[in-house]
DNA sequence: CTGAAAGCGCTTACAG
DNA sequence: CTGAAAGCGCTTACAG
């Protein structure tokens, strides 16, 4: 810096307030009780000098950075955008900033973040892991503070999730109640080798609902979706049509998959909800604005973000307490795509 | 840290390689030429000890953090999601990490970031300012490295933009060529007091196209949109219908506005493109998957992100060079919403 | 409740 | 091209 006055330091503040640097530190960090009049003098000096603590120096000393990482597979999806939006808001309210990471294109990044969080100058990680089997959470047992989001089947780490089995059951049951009998599961497939925990659970719920109605599962009606996006949904719908099997409803495992599938059905002159009923998961904003609007599973996204951030902050403060799980309630939102 | 071995430091590496800490630093930073065999020995020691530099210590010494901030008004929009996605990718390729900030809900944050970037431990900011008149860029002249994205009318700072005037002209001309005569501009309004530079420019292009075709601008056909989102587009469409004036096309100033408007038109039994033609701006992924798919203005988003990051890195390296402007080319993508 | 000293792990001058 | 010393600005023990 060539221009401008030198930034004030704790020393300057201490000198002006007539105390030691240690006392300034105590006031700034509110760790111990400081006598009110001392406190006042320090704060006045801070104000006068425009003192802002140097976070690099603080980090160097105490190992905390005030930064949490949010690592998601694909940042470009509507669901990711909403998670980022809310996590940033909640983190700010808690005095933390958020560093964003994307893991799908660069799988090593996921491992790297979790195995060397300290080296990356972050206090902890909120992670939506890509694949269950790849997740090093399972292997490594000396972890930094980590909160997993999404339905991951392991028990060493704090988690925020929704009950995907139950949700999968509910949407399928809804379709059965509306008269559908040949219901497609779009996103999971029995026996898929690289299935995610989420897809496995949603598929289980789907199977349970079918079984309750005395309907046997038909592998022809299970379509695997590699990329849970609109493109993936469009490809899956094309694959489904190519199988040339009858169907009267689709349970899409995310709203994005549903949007992609809807587009392809429309191109083929298949009407939703006229010919085929359709449901999604997530209730992204577009679900409400599509024509037809999309029946889907909604969750309290703010509660979701808040739980993730707060679990992480708790974990940062106490590394030894047992892992906790927070389940966020969900509900079925019925819209045009299942209403004839 | 109670468990695990102590992290290796430059000292450890220096001792193992039989050199001074300074030489280790020289090798790690590639600032000066180091004799190949010395270099090899140092790198071997780094490898053996798993040495990773402590970035807090580095920052404390040299003032750089390796962090850039990306500050957008609203993170939940599709356009934001895509910008975040691409900026994070490009920044990683350049060895930087990205801190995300949202400014619409917390307007002070914009000022704070730009006026005290150093205090926030960031090397620079990529900023999409909310309102022209609020932007402190105009007032302050001792700025940290800043790159503005979007059409901001000022010349003190590096900028990445598209030619919104020309784009506004092109979509309007396209609609005129398809026979539309009563074309609504949805997003800007002549004389709006808190108009953004973007909305002003798109409106100017719209006016120019009308003028070229000998059509007089009609204030009844200009609808102001407060929030450039689907909700805002839906509200604007409701407002337009309430005016009870004839129209045969809509130039929406973003794709999101178009989606919101499409939904309301559909609810009122107005067909796109049957009764009304519609265009957007941005070419977000949904534009392709809507029914009908949306005619819109596309830009090379990767080039956009790359230009923003690279301008910023150049600025961080050299604070004194004159401000630069990078214009990203755009093109009209014609789809179903303007094809009868 | 507050002070004086030491040190977190780097890199910047200053020498050679 | 490399070394020995100093210091970036905080906070952590250690005293009192």
Distance between the first and last residues' Cα of chain A: 67 Å
Oligomer state equals homodimer
Share of helix among residues of chain A? Answer: 40-55%
Uncertain stretches of chain A: none
The proportion of residues in beta strands of chain A is 5-15%
CATH superfamily of the largest domain in chain A: Response regulator
CATH architecture of the largest domain in chain A: 3-Layer(aba) Sandwich
Question: Which chain pair has the greatest contact?
Answer: A-B, 56 and 57 residues
Order of H and E elements of chain A: HHHHEHEHEEEHEHEHEHEHEHEE
Query: What is the 3D shape of chain A?
Result: elongated
Main β-sheet, spatial strand arrangement of chain A:
2-1-3-4-5-11
Radius of gyration of chain A in whole Å, from Cα? 25 Å
Organism (chains A, B): Nocardioides luteus
Keywords (chains A, B): DNA-binding, Transcription, Transcription regulation
Domain HTH lacI-type (chains A, B): 8-62
Pfam family, one (chains A, B): LacI
If you had to describe this structure to a student in words, what would you say it looks like?
The first copy, chain A, is an alpha/beta fold. The first copy, chain A, folds into three domains: 10-53, lambda repressor-like DNA-binding domains (434 Repressor (Amino-terminal Domain), Orthogonal Bundle); 67-162 and 300-329, Rossmann fold, CATH 3.40.50; 164-299 and 332-338, Response regulator (Rossmann fold, 3-Layer(aba) Sandwich), CATH 3.40.50.2300. Chain A has helices at 10-17, 21-29, 36-49, 55-62, 78-93, 108-115, 164-177, 197-212, 230-243, 255-267, 285-289, 301-317; strands at 67-72, 97-102, 124-127, 146-149, 158-161, 183-187, 222-224, 249-252, 277-279, 296-299, 325-327, 330-333. In chain A, helix 1 (10-17) crosses helix 3 (36-49), helix 5 crosses helix 12 and helix 7 (164-177) runs parallel beside helix 8 (197-212). The model of chain A has no long low-confidence stretch (mean pLDDT 88). At the A-B interface, helix 4, helix 5, strand 2, helix 10 and helix 11 of A face helix 4, helix 5, strand 2, helix 10 and helix 11 of B. Strand 2 of chain A pairs antiparallel with strand 2 of chain B. Chain A binds a DNA duplex (16 and 16 nucleotides) through residues 7, 9-11, 19-23, 25-26, 29, 32-35, 38, 53-63. Chains A, B: It holds the Pfam family Peripla_BP_3. Chains A, B: Keywords: DNA-binding, Transcription, Transcription regulation. Chains A, B: GO terms for molecular function: DNA-binding transcription factor activity; transcription cis-regulatory region binding.
